[in-house]
Structure formats: C-alpha cells, structure tokens
Amino acid sequence: MSTSHTTGKLLVATPQIEEGVFARSVVLVLHHDDDGAQGLVLNRPIDADIDAVLPGWEAHASSPAKVFQGGPVQLDSALGLAVVPGDSPAPSGVRRLFGSVALVDLDAQPSLVVPAVAGLRIFAGYAGWSPGQLEDEIRTGSWFVVDSESGDVFTHEPAGLWQRVLRRQGDPLRWVAWYPRDPSLN
C-alpha cells in the first residue's frame, strides 16, 4: 500500500497485538509519508479530567469528556482533534488535516475555536512510526487498514469501537470482530 493512501485511514489492531496500548486499538492516521507516520488511538480514554490538564476545554469536549491516550509517544503533550464542518476555511487556532478532520491549537482560547468546530477530543501523546516501520507492521499482519467514518473519531462508546469498525467490514475481515481476547479459553 502506498504511504499516501493511509493518511485518513484507520489502523485496526489485529489479534496478533495482544498487549499494551495497541491491543484492540483503532488508530486514525493523521499523516503518513516517506518520513514516517503519526496517528491517534481513538479508543483509549484514561481516567484524567481534561480541565485538570487544560483548563477551559472540558466543557467543550465530546462525550466521554476525558483525556484519551493517543499513543505511547510524548505522553506529556496534548493534541486536540476536531471536526470542521463543510468546506469552510478552518478558523484561527485550527489546522485542517484532511476532509473535515483538524488539529486544534490548545493554547488558543476555547471561546474562539469552539464555535467553528463540531466535535472535540483531547489526546495525551500520539502513535508514531519511523520511515518504513508502519509499512512493515502492515505487511507482517499487525494492522488492518480500513476506511474511517465520521462517527469513529468522536464515538460516545470508545470501548466498543474496535469491534464496531470490524463488524462493518466485508467477509472475512468482519469475522475478526468476534475473535476472543484469549483464544485458549475458547
């Protein structure tokens, strides 16, 4: 798969990834080129209130209004992901990445950004791959690459996202949605 074709796609962890932040994870690829890839894990809310880290943003976050672990890289940094509806230009403090998905400058005043976005999620850290690393992981069966849908990023039920994304795929990929966490107990 060409690297440019994974930007905007979802990486869905295969059962081969059994532990850590990537086990049963769904990652939105924000950027992928010859220099590597970056993405955000969409289904790992952590027990951290947004206002404890970024005062003023929690009231505007999509439910569940918690910080999400975006990946294992730079856990001490925060990224804001938002939807900019339609084809309108991104407002100040917002940078459109692809389609309606945009990054939010969390140093901006929430009151300036929030009226122009339709959904906001805060992530601690991100997922990152060096040049060629993601391609190797896809080739060796760590990730399924599938299309994203608008509701994936801001799902109200992140715990069920892995299974929901797989269930909407065609056969035989959709069958993986029912793969047991511990196949030895089957």
TrEMBL record:
Highest taxon listed in the record's lineage: Bacteria
TM segment ranges: none
Pfam family, one: DUF179
Family recorded in the similarity comment: Belongs to the UPF0301 (AlgH) family.
Annotated protein name in UniProt: UPF0301 protein GCM10023153_29200
